[in-house]
């Protein structure tokens, strides 16, 4: 019985796990036939709006980046998508789980994040076939007075 309850909540819980809040502006980049539509629908339901596509030029709170190993240079892409990102915004890099086609090594994400001056703050399972890595702007070091 608990498993059935969990299965019903998983679709809405994924948006909560990704820290999506009502009225947030969420942009989606890297959509392809292989993305998890359940995750997309949960995010749209939670934020109350459709996901913006990669051509949108609004300031966004969250960028969902569906990324596969063959998609190119992650550092360049991160630098490009940081432009419309709000100062307190986050990027979720969604990659195929280990063993799946297009899997990206976590070290590759960490290296691209560091080069882009982003901090990797958490990782989690997002749907059946995807892993999410949360990236945010690095906070300036606090100086003692």
From TrEMBL:
InterPro entries per UniProt: DUF3052
Pfam families per UniProt: DUF3052 (PF11253)
Entry superkingdom: Bacteria
Name assigned to this protein: DUF3052 domain-containing protein
Taxonomic lineage from the root: Bacteria, Bacillati, Actinomycetota, Actinomycetes, Actinopolysporales
């Amino acid at each position: 019985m608990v498993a059935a309850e969990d299965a019903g909540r998983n679709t809405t819980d994924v948006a909560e796990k990704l820290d999506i809040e009502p009225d947030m502006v969420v942009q989606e980049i890297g959509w392809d036939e292989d993305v998890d539509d359940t995750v997309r629908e949960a995010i749209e339901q939670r934020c109350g709006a459709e996901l913006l596509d990669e051509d949108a030029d609004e300031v966004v709170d969250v960028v969902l980046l569906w990324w596969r190993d063959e998609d190119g240079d992650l550092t360049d892409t991160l630098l490009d998508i940081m432009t419309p990102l709000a100062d307190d915004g986050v990027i979720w890099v969604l990659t195929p789980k280990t063993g799946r086609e297009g899997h990206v090594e976590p070290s590759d994400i960490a290296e691209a994040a560091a080069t882009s001056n982003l901090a990797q703050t958490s990782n989690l399972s997002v749907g059946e076939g995807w892993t999410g890595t949360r990236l945010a702007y690095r906070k300036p070091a606090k100086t003692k007075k």
